[in-house]
UniProtKB/TrEMBL annotation, chains A, B:
This is DNA-protecting protein DprA. It holds the Pfam family DNA_processg_A. It comes from Amnibacterium flavum. Residues 121-331 form the Smf/DprA SLOG domain. PANTHER family: PROTEIN SMF. The gene is dprA.
Length: 402, 402
């Protein structure tokens, strides 16, 4: 395996699979290959994903190590797996990956993970967030996790609550109410661990005794942002901090954008609380929409630039306008799907008859008919209903409002 | 005509058709019959509308006056006009209208109108707001108007701006910006003359030198609310105050609801600025939606009950989220229809290459390829584009960020 002793690899893998529970694959070679791919291909590399899905992580790595040419991979290796990839796509992939093929990198990441108590979660594991599989070839090959594995299982009923780093007091209030309200209703809350909305969502979930998961754009051994070190530490105790990047990896803009796809895919619906016009949380929203996940946006004052992004989502992205935890929950429970509502105005005859009555003087049906412009029979019917509702009263053939 | 001398009727009609310009119908009998119907049938009475549309206002009135039985009207009179109305629908209509058939009422209303300078506008008149015709049998038979007839013509490019009486400072600010912005763009602004949002919309339009029209729920000789007497007087100078109710008629809840259909129908699109959960402006919104008119709602803080109705419109009524006059104008110009927008993130390779560059030290393409996880050829392509954008600079094969 990459020229390493099998015992070395086995020991390294054992260090990150200590509490793996039901293990999808105890194939040490596969696990090590997945950990290696995490350092070789950038998040969301669909060519790597297709290759791994066709050949398995180990074989895909071996093919690359053995220097098999792109056209042979396309025409022979993949052909047998009924996967089609263009030769130049594969060649470009090999050109991307080969410079990063350093034997010691994965080993170092695994050692570092073992030291920090980080464990690996693999596709097919009991705790693997099944929503990630909807990413297809763009799904992560492995998750690196600090905290409670069962928090990942809780993602099967969960919301992403995301938003601007530069949140206002209004946004922070809304994020707090949303996270508390949804976790009270039994949902886990996932977010990105950032300042502003993300942080408030995690904090409010913890304060409500709920489960929260933070997805990071770099290795989980390097908490980012550093100002959230104690919050992220708290999250590992009350949930999990997760990344597809190996330990030691630093966050980059690209990785933030790709991290957002994990947040959108791992959860059932995404709520954007506050977002500037070019906020990264719109990227998360875009992933949610692409995946067909329900997308909610919280409105705010049009005078606040921190709500511009939410308004764009409502206007241009068909996001659902959500103003409280009940409406957010409905995004996934479907208990009260958006419908046309009853317009104020109600029963015309009732309104018109009430309009024609006095509280002081009683009026005859004929008088009411003339005043309301209704036929006497319509007046009589309306009066009967209004009487049942306790809104009108009759004495000696004269009706008045109560 | 209703037992009145023809000269009396002719004189009364002349008093309200002085400045009628191109007149759709100079048939005095028809005009008087329409004015009569305005006092006999309540606004929006579809049976009266169907009868008038089939027989003409004069004949419809005569049929009622002559005591023609409902089944004969259904089977003989209407049959020839190819209109179908059920016998019991007609009978119920006759029962509604007959108690109100008082010869002097229409005459009194016309005299009152003539004294106050109110004139009549008829369907087919040059100034008749053609949007009202979309109401079909529920359209008004006549409009009573104070002010400038040409203001009604301006409704062919117009917005309804409506909202809560109990507006907040935020709502008043938004209404002002919306009305000023839309009238600057050449649109007339219609509203209901009420306190709160309506009043601000009229005021801001006047202040911008625009044209504004107020639709009232009672006669235009009785300004309602009385606290808006000077505003409504001002509107008659800079636009028009209009009603389908005859002079002397008082506003009722039913008439407010029906008045709302005129606002929605006469304009090209309706904007709800602020509305409580059961606000009457939701009724206007409902009419707009029913008529297929574009409907915009302005979001606000979810902590403000004055925005609850707008959020319901966004959530349950597929209203378009509008946050400025440009977005409102787009509702009718269709210049920038809602579309999926470009997600922040952009070109993956560009972002990843920029992520991998330093401002201080230059890096080789090979180094950048390894850092970004891109193939050298992809790096080269991205660098070329970034160089064109002036974002990167090269010296002796080493690239750095500017």
């Amino acid at each position: 395996m990459l020229g390493l002793e099998e015992d070395t690899v086995r020991a390294a893998v054992a260090g990150v699979r200590r509490d793996s529970g039901t293990v999808a694959s105890d194939d040490v070679g596969d696990i090590f290959a997945r950990a290696s791919w995490a350092g070789i291909a950038e998040p969301g590399d669909g060519t790597a994903g297709a290759l791994i899905s066709a050949l398995g992580a180990r074989r895909a790595l071996a093919v690359m190590l053995e220097g098999v040419a792109a056209d042979r991979i396309a025409n022979e290796v993949l052909d047998r797996a009924s996967i089609e990839l263009r030769v130049d796509t594969i060649r470009s992939g090999l050109d991307r990956w080969r410079p990063r093929l350093v034997a010691g990198d994965a080993l170092a990441a695994l050692h570092r993970a073992a030291q920090r108590g980080v464990s690996l979660v693999l596709p097919g594991d009991l705790h693997w967030p099944s929503g990630l599989d909807d990413l297809g070839d763009h799904k992560p090959n492995v998750l690196w996790m600090l905290g409670d594995r069962s928090a990942l299982t809780s993602l099967s009923a969960s919301f992403a609550i995301v938003g601007a780093r530069a949140a206002t007091k209004y946004g922070e209030y809304v994020a707090t109410e949303a996270a508390a309200g949804l976790s009270d209703r039994g949902f886990a809350i996932a977010s990105g661990g950032a300042y502003g909305i993300d942080g408030m969502a995690h904090r409010a979930t913890i304060a409500s005794g709920g489960v929260t998961v933070a997805f990071l754009a770099g290795g989980v051994d390097r908490f980012y942002p550093s100002g959230h070190h104690s919050l992220l530490t708290e999250i590992t105790k009350r949930g999990a901090v997760v990344s597809e990047l190996p330990c030691g990896a630093s966050p980059t803009r690209w990785r933030f954008l790709q991290r957002n796809r994990l947040i959108a895919a791992a959860t059932q619906a995404t709520i954007v609380v506050e977002a500037g016009r070019r906020s990264g949380s719109l990227n998360t929203a875009g992933h949610a929409a692409t995946l067909g996940r329900p997308l909610g946006a919280v409105p705010g004052p049009i005078t606040s630039v921190a709500s511009d992004g939410c308004h764009r989502l409502l206007r241009e992205f068909a996001a659902v306008c959500v103003t409280n935890a009940d409406e957010m929950a409905e995004l996934v429970t479907g208990e009260a799907p958006p419908t046309l509502f009853d317009l104020p105005g109600g029963d015309g005859a009732g309104v018109r008859v009430l309009d024609s009555l006095s509280k002081r003087s009683g009026r005859s049906i004929h008088d009411i008919a003339k005043r309301s412009g209704l036929a006497p029979a319509e007046v009589q019917g309306a009066l009967g209903l209004l009487e049942l509702e306790g809104l009108v009263v009759e004495a000696a053939g004269a009706w008045r409002r109560r």
